[in-house]
Amino acid sequence: MARYNEAMQDLIDSEFPDAGIIQLNHAGVGPWPRRTAAAVCAFAEENHRQGSLNYPRWLETEAALRRKAGELLHANPADIALLKNTSEGLSVVAHGLPWSPGDNIVSTDEEFPSNRIVGESLSTEGVELRRAALNTGDPEGALFALVDERTRVIAVSSVQYASGLRMDLERIGAFCRARDIVFCVDAIQSIGALRIDVQAIGADAVVADGHKWMLAPEGIALFYTRPALRERLRLRQYGWHMVEEHGDFERREWAIARDARRFECGSPNMLGIHGLLASLELLAEVGMSEVERRVLANAGRLRELIAASGVLETLGPVDADRRSGIVVFRRPGHDPLALHRALMEHGVLCAPRGGGVRFSPHFHTRDGHLERAVELACRL
User: Fold this and answer.
1) What CATH number does the domain located at 43-285 have?
2) Measured torsion, CA atoms of residues 222, 223, 224, 226, in degrees rounded to the nearest 10
């Protein structure tokens, strides 16, 4: 075990050298590992020197990313599209389904605007967005209480961005399957930090951008769709890349791609693809079980330090099985926005969320950084 821990620390030191900044904003925009920065720089240099000479190899990198994403999500790579961001994937589902006036979507009152705005945009079609209050002690039950015969979709975040509340996705998935309700998951606050199996949770669609817990560039997202749902979604974007024979530019007849590539209307984000693959390879090297263990341990350590401070108090979920990598706290009598600004000025990357300050450590976060961040939060 000692040898394992030493090897892990060597890996962390190599990939995330201590630059004097305390990285506690993985729920916002996470730092890139060294290998990801190297992959992006190498791709840029190759493009600069050789242009598209090696484009076939770039396509191999794209295929490798789909395979690695399939391993991460426990999904068939053919069911994963590479989109621009989470909002695009949520919009593909919301505006691809057939709606009738009087239909409704059930979600929560704590969703990030990506979920809320996409749902509200359907009001022009007579679709109601119903938002369940999650502070009831039974978040899933609160969702289910709003469902009726006109509910077509339950759309939730796997982890709530402002509180860190972790939803019971398997329970929601089973509820949806029994009622033929589409289950759509915004997983941006869990993929890369917590294990996820899209088959086990019974999701119809799961989407997450790479720039948070997956430690990758902005502008590229993983979008999983169950084949049965994929066939139901009306496409709103068309282009050369989303057809079955996308390499035959002279072909006049075309058909929509059978797999998830149908949602990729045009040229891929090759720079983002190279970066995301490098980051997912690191997560695979560490192992998602170990990543999750370390994320939750670091979040738990933060809670211990906050509780012991005598100055700060933790907000958010109390039950251990509801916790995630997000820890929100406040300093009574102090403005959270002012405290956030002070922490940022002292090199602690964090965010003002949920009525307090949000810390979000990853597997690589050093214990000394956690102690230093809490110490600063107590005295600034």
Assistant:
1) 3.40.640.10
2) -170
